[in-house]
Amino acid sequence: MATYQEKTADFATLCKEQGGTWRNINPEFAARMALQNRFRTGLDIARYTAGIMRRDMAEYDADASQYTQSLGCWHGFIGQQKLIAIKKHHGSTKKRYLYLSGWMIAALRSEFGPLPDQSMHEKTSVPALIEELYTFLKQADARELNHLYRDLDGAREAGDQVAEQRALDAINGFETHVVPIIADIDAGFGNEEATYLLARKMIEAGACAIQIENQVSDAKQCGHQDGKVTVPHEDFLAKINAVRYAFLELGVNDGVIVARTDSLGAGLTQKIPVSREPGDLASQYNAFLETETVTSAEDVNEGDVVIKQDGKLVRPVRLPNGLYRFKPGTGEARVILDCVTSLQNGADLLWIETEKPHVGQIGAMVDQIREHVPDAKLVYNNSPSFNWTLNFRQQVFDAWQEEGRDLSAYDRDKLMSAEYDDTELAALADQWVQNFQADGSREAGIFHHLITLPTYHTAALSTDNLAKGYFGAEGMLAYVEGVQRKEIRQGIACVKHQDMAGSNIGDDHKEYFSGEAALKAGGKDNTMNQFG
After folding, report:
1. Same domain for 425 and 340
2. Is 260 annotated as a binding residue?
3. 503 known member of a binding site
4. How far apart are the two ends of the chain, measured CA to CA in Å?
5. Which terminus of the chain, N or C, has fewer Cβ atoms within 10 Å?
6. 303 in any annotated domain
7. Cα 190 from Cα 198, distance rounded (Å)
8. Are 432 and 499 part of one and the same domain?
9. Which domain holds residue 8?
10. Strands 229-230 and 256-261
11. Residues 386-424: tens digit of each pLDDT
12. CA nearest neighbour of 15 among 3, 31, 36
C-alpha cells in the first residue's frame, strides 16, 4: 500500500498533467481522502479479509494458542464501536473478527418485526447488514485518520518536525478497522440455487467466510431449540458446492466455508436419501434411522415406506407430520460423520452446535474427526443460550464428586443461587469459564470462539439500568453518573458523538472544497468543546 507521501506525489503528478484546470485541487487533500477509503468495493474487503483468515488458520495449526475471537453485532454502529474499543484497549485488531448472527437479524432487523430464528426474515437483510457493518468500519478508519491528519497539520503549524514525523509514521502505519466477518446464511434460504444467489450477494457485500448449517431450510430452528430436522449429506454438500462456486465466480479464491452440524440435538429427518450401494453416504445416513423389521406385507400399513438394510426389509419410523426419526443416542456419531464428510467435500471449518459448553465433550468429538482429517478445527458458539454459571459450577461439582470430596455444603441443582457466590466451588468454576476459550482451543480444536448474541443482551441490560434510574428518583443523574461520566473517564470516543458521526471529517472536507469560505460546524460555540 502506498505511503502518504507517495500518494500525495501521485496526485501532484496527476494534477500537473491537467494543464492547470485542476489548480484548485490540493494533491495532499486528495491523498488524504483516498487513504480514508482504502477499500473501494465489498469484493476488495472479501479478498483482503479472506487472506487474513487463511493466515490465522495456518498460525493456529502451528500453535493452538493462536485462536481467534469475535462478537455478534446487529448494527453497523455496534460493530464499529467494538473495533474502536479493541484498538484502544488491545492495540491491534489482529485475530479479532465480527460475527453476523442470523438469530439477531431475525430478532432485530426484519421488516416483519421481531421473529424467531427460523429463516423467516428477508434474505436480503443478511447482505444488507454485512454492507452496513463495513460502511461503519470504513467510517471508523476515516475518523481516526482524520484525527491523525489534524495532528500533522498542528505539528507543521507549530514547526515541530519531531511531532510531524510522528504523525506521518502513525498515518503510514495505520491499521484498518476492517476485519473478517463470519456471516450466517442459515440453511441457505431454499435450494442450492437459492443458496448460491444469496452467498454471492453476501460476498459482494464483503463476507469472506460463510457459515451454513445442515438443517432443512423450510423447517429451520435455532440450534438451541427443539424440533431440528437435518438433511442428507448429499443435499448439504450441494449447498457447500454452491457457496464455493459463488466465491470462485467473484474471485475470492480463498473464501472460507464453515459447515455447521446440528445433528447432536436433531432427532428428525425429512428425507430418506437414495442408496446405490452398501456403505455409501446415503446408506450411512439411513443406518441411523429408527426402524422396525418387516417380515411380511402384514407388517406394512397403507402409505408406509420400506427400505432394505443389511439384507433385511425395514420400515423407518415415520411421525404423523411425515418426518422420520433417528435412533436415540446416535447424535454424536451423526456429528462425526457430518463433520468428516463436510471437510472431505470442500468445507474449511466446522461448527458443532452443542447443548452445553464442555471442553471434554467437544474434544472427544474432534479427536474422532481428526482421525480422518488431522487438521480439522472448529468455529465454536460460546452461546448466551447456555447458563454458563450453572453449567460450570455443576462441572466442578461433578469433578469433585469423582475425586470423592465432601459436597454436603452444595446442592447441585441449586448452584446458580447467589448463596454460593463466595464459595471455593464458585471461584473455581469462574476460573474454568475464564480459561474456557484457551482450554477449548488447546484441547478441543477450536480455532475461532464467538458469542452470537452478546450485543443483544448488553443493549437490553444497559437500557434497563438507564430506564430504571432516569424514570425514577435519580432523574438526570442516572444518565450523568451511569453513562456520561463513565464515558469521559474511560475515554470512550463516542462521548463526542458529533465527531463520531463524522462532523469533523465533514468540516475538513468543506475546507478542501471551499477553502476559507467553508461554513464549518466545529467552531467555538460547538458544545462538544466541553469534553476537551
Report:
1. yes
2. yes
3. no
4. 34
5. C
6. no
7. 10
8. no
9. 1-37
10. unpaired
11. 999 999 999 999 999 999 999 999 999 999 999 999 999
12. 31
CATH for 451: 3.20.20.60
pTM of the model: 0.94
How many beta carbons lie within 10 A of that of residue 97, not counting itself? 23
Q: By C-alpha distance, which of 220, 257, 261 is closest to 242?
A: 257
- The burial class, CB within 10 Å (0-12 / 13-18 / 19+), for 423 is middle
Q: Report in angstroms the alpha-carbon separations of 148 from 36, 171, 354, 472.
A: 11, 6, 46, 43
Cα–Cα distance between 487 and 211 in angstroms, integer? 35
Number of residues that make up the chain: 532
Give CA 30 to chain center in angstroms.
Answer: 35
Distance CA 518, CA 411 (A): 70
Strand, coil or helix: what is 69? strand
Q: Tell me the three cell numbers of residue 371.
A: 482421525
Listed in sequence order, the residues at least 6 apart from 30 whose beta carbon sits closer than 8 Å to its beta carbon are: 8, 11, 15
Contact predicate 137/79, CB 8 Å: yes
The verdict on whether residue 184 carries a ligand-binding annotation is: yes
The grid coordinates listed for 56 are 490465522
The neighbour count for residue 307, using CB atoms within 10 Å, is 17
**Catalytic positions, written as ranges:** 222
Exposed, middle or buried: residue 270 (CB in 10 Å: 0-12, 13-18, 19+)?
middle
Give the position of cell 475546507.
511
103 is in an annotated binding site: yes
